């Protein structure tokens, strides 16, 4: 199957065949099917992860009439890969260790994943409907710097299709300036399937955003946020955030672990304050 997939993709790369819409579509669908087949394994995923993984394959879904460039297809594939890997990590319930738990129930856990490194998992319940969180985290992504002190700025550099973005994020200094300014260039993929929403991402290259002077280029990924209504309380939202970051530079692991764990706790608190400052009807009107 893998050999056939590469042959089909190779065929679509020849100039005289690039305008053959059917072949391009078959190549994209084949990549999507192969990605799904090779997604990370583990124990049987919970219901909501299973639902997203079964139906999330962007590359295998129906394409829009406009064909994407080779680079855009690569970004689409990268976003899908990030989502599959991140959901695969979340679906494996073994090996998680508690880093911290707040009085309000917010919990941060961590584990070491082969070929990825140490990842952090935040689980919180927000007393707001999922639609408000989706709008704030996805549709108003560029406004995050207004309410999250850990982020100075987020810009969408390119949008590909309906739910894939290339972003540049400039992070603030942390740990009393022990961690200097970092920036990230990432591909992000947002999915909505039924009552579940997923925003996944990972580091990527983007020619129009080279490294900035005085800022260390760090890397995300695979990472994701999963949103779904709390069982029995649809007006509340369960948020799970998988965080995987390579901050680069010469930093002790103890400082890195402390910074990343605290970043997740602070994020949840700032997100609540942001949502509480918005009228509920604003997300629905």
TrEMBL record:
Keywords annotated in UniProt: Lipid transport, Lipid-binding, Mitochondrion, Steroidogenesis, Transit peptide, Transport
Annotated compartments: Mitochondrion
Primary subcellular site in the record, as a coarse category: mitochondrion
InterPro entries named among the record's database cross-references: StAR (IPR029866), StAR-like (IPR000799), START-like_dom_sf (IPR023393), START_lipid-bd_dom (IPR002913)
Pathway: Steroid metabolism; cholesterol metabolism
Domain START: 67-280
GO terms, biological process: cholesterol metabolic process; glucocorticoid metabolic process; intracellular cholesterol transport; positive regulation of bile acid biosynthetic process; steroid biosynthetic process
GO molecular function: cholesterol binding; cholesterol transfer activity
GO cellular component, one term: mitochondrion
PANTHER family: STEROIDOGENIC ACUTE REGULATORY PROTEIN, MITOCHONDRIAL
Function: Plays a key role in steroid hormone synthesis by enhancing the metabolism of cholesterol into pregnenolone. Mediates the transfer of cholesterol from the outer mitochondrial membrane to the inner mitochondrial membrane where it is cleaved to pregnenolone.
Subunit-level organization: May interact with TSPO.
Stated name of the protein: Steroidogenic acute regulatory protein, mitochondrial
Organism annotation: Pongo abelii (Sumatran orangutan)
